[in-house]
Amino acid sequence: MNGQELLKQHISKTATLTDEQFDYFFSHFTLLSFKKGQTIISEGDEVDCEYFVVSGCLKAFFINDDIKMYILQFAMSTWWTSDYNALYSHSRATINVDCITDAEVLCLKSADREKLCAEIHQVEHFFRWRTNRGYVASQKRLLSFMNNDAKKRYEELLTLYPELYNLVPKHLIAAYLGITRETLSRLYNGR
Amino acid sequence: MNGQELLKQHISKTATLTDEQFDYFFSHFTLLSFKKGQTIISEGDEVDCEYFVVSGCLKAFFINDDIKMYILQFAMSTWWTSDYNALYSHSRATINVDCITDAEVLCLKSADREKLCAEIHQVEHFFRWRTNRGYVASQKRLLSFMNNDAKKRYEELLTLYPELYNLVPKHLIAAYLGITRETLSRLYNGR
């Protein structure tokens, strides 16, 4: 499925747009292709866009002072990603986004998102529900981080996103779970 | 300031409503008064409402199998709270919400929120931006949990919400930070 069809199908689960409205909406996106390992957002960048993943897999991550990596989010096909803190507050990026695999993304500028939300009520409806779902997922992950040990978090991730295990190298899954690669190996071999 | 004025001021920071639109919007809220210690949502409840805090302080929390409490959110004047996972997915509550102090809240039913969002574009705009901000705060807290030690998280909380320290007993601040009361005492006395 090409990016336009994928985005149309994705939006139509939440909002009702006429074909004309969707074509107008879609005309504000730019299709970008990235190679595995390429960086989309670097810490310190001005952040002006969010990205709808058409194909491939991205990661949003943070590197601390000890050069330890924490993965905030994986983003696969039909997921959205950006540094939303920077995007919404017009501040500089504090996280990075790069490509785990070759990837195609549809890029939407912040000013265009706001214009489209103001022009088409159903577009605002779509973005409200997209963020509602992101908020709930983020709260669940926070609760899981507070309450669950590595084994439980690992099993949760397996259940929620089984496809990640084919797409994503094990050391990145460890960085998402906040554990070492050795601990992950023990959990992985214990299945 | 009474609840109606407080909500009007709160909404007007994000959305533009005429007086008639605001009065109509406000007519869907119910003012409720609770005593310190009273429960608003219990694990297992059907969740049909979200709450705008007029006065006082609430907490949204989770009790695990070992009867350990984790605080997901404090909610003070002009904050919103509910079990949003249950509210948005029409499932049973997995967390609890109760009152740290006497409190007055404005209750909005889920069906009314959706009706108002559909009827008044600016109401949908308001709720989109409210959740955008909640999403970013939740992502920041997650990153802080992954990366920062208790001392750093304590200092962050102090900086972000200094007023919490007068409103909220220390053992609840410890439950928010995911540390013991003893560790918090050490940090508190080290200031």
Automatic annotation (TrEMBL), chains A, B:
This is CRP-like cAMP-binding protein. Pfam families: cNMP_binding. Residues 13-94 form the Cyclic nucleotide-binding domain. SUPFAM superfamilies: cAMP-binding domain-like (SSF51206).
